[in-house]
Queue: 3 jobs
Job 1
Amino acid sequence: MNLNITINGKPIPKARPRLTRDGLAYTPKQTRDYERSIKRAAIIEMAGSPLMDGAVCLDVQAFFPIPSSWSKKRKAMALDGTLAHTSKPDGSNVLKSIEDALNGVVYADDSQIVKSTISKHYSDRPRVQVTVSDEFAESTERNLL
């Protein structure tokens, strides 16, 4: 099974938990809101399908907005892919937001993820494109036979 999910808007990294004065930990609002939007998109794509069981693979492509202050030449390089997105946020933190948000919606727990990839790009249409598949498990089974 392959599942493709698109989350429109600027990719948001998983923020570190914050502490109240009483020492209670909480997730910042921006992270909670972003994870909710990921969950909503995943629920729509799942369309009532059962959770994936077993090993899953996750491929995430994050498309970030091009800074308006950049020259036309630099913007063109960003759009055609010759200029890589090497600034913050870290790809691993964007990936963590996706992994956590899909818990209980696409798979039971993110411990089922056996392979994940993240790539960062520039685009004039910021978004995150996620592909979740259980093909790893199927190809491993074929290799064992």
Job 2
Amino acid sequence: MGALSAERMLHLPVHLHGILLGRSVDLLLDPAEWRAVGFDVVCGDGASRFLPFTTTTIRDDDIVVDSALMLLEDVDFYRTRARSLRALIGSPTDVDGVAAGRLRDLELATDGTAVKLLLERDGAEYRVEPGRARVVVTTRRDAA
């Protein structure tokens, strides 16, 4: 499988052996690297839970887990230690220290490492290496 769209993952259902457990509403990223650490999942009971990225299989139309025990109760613990993709989408981004447009998406390898950032500037989209890009700090709590 090729690169995965991080933004697309924000809307995928989470299944265990074909049973719907919930729906991904955010992708949490390592605060120091462009790497996915897990999902914020709203489950069927209405509770938000953390799902570690490494415990999932991402398919075209869903996120698959091998055990419901992978959905961890204390999602706030993980939210405070990560960056929210939802909060970062649309944020101004610098590339090599120069304003480069707004973040639209991340292309992720199957291990969750970002391989490209999709930026938009003046209606044009382009991809850059993650190591060259930095989201400009805004008033958002976790946009760093």
Job 3
Amino acid sequence: MKYNRILLKLSGESLMGKQSYGIAPEMLEQYAKDIKAVVEKGVEVAIVIGGGNIFRGLSGASKGMDRVQGDYMGMLATLINSMALQAELEKQGMKTELLGGLAIEPICKEMSRRRAIEAMQEGRVVVIGGGTGNPFFTTDTASTLRAIEIKADVILKGTRVDGVYTADPEKDPTATKFASLTFQEALGKKLKIMDLTAFALCEENNLPIYVFDMNQPGNLLKVVTGEPIGTEVIKG
């Protein structure tokens, strides 16, 4: 295995599937099966999911809502997604642990490095909702923070695109894919891989980011076994 302990970052929008809102059961099922495949190979897995399919704090703020209130609503949206994924993982026969930046009994305990690592070492998939527990931070930053805390080998950013391109491949047919990049190259080219806070944390802590297409069944297993199907961002 190329990676033994991973932090899988999923967007909330990815859970919509072909819907315009909410959670598509078929996407939950596919993701759970892919996660199960890597867990059965002995890989330790933690997951952070965004909440954009339900509510996004910045969107609320742009329409006049108080930013702090909006961000807390966004954190609750990530917990809804986390609960949905937890339920599907358990339906697939896996053991899980749901932790949160916000502790909400009886749904989840507060995230702590010790709890997360112990759960993974016991073979449980750790799902971490609630962002960082603080406003003004994105789930990109939350996933980076959690990956550093649990000493993950990599952040796997599952998207609907198979890597990082010179331009948006959905809009520009001439865009070409990078096999690998340094953090400085990505910043210099103004490639929007993660927000700047998350990006700086990754570079400072020498934490690689791997961007790949999570919507293609089987891709997660290919990534952890070292098959070069996406884009790796590493320290130069």
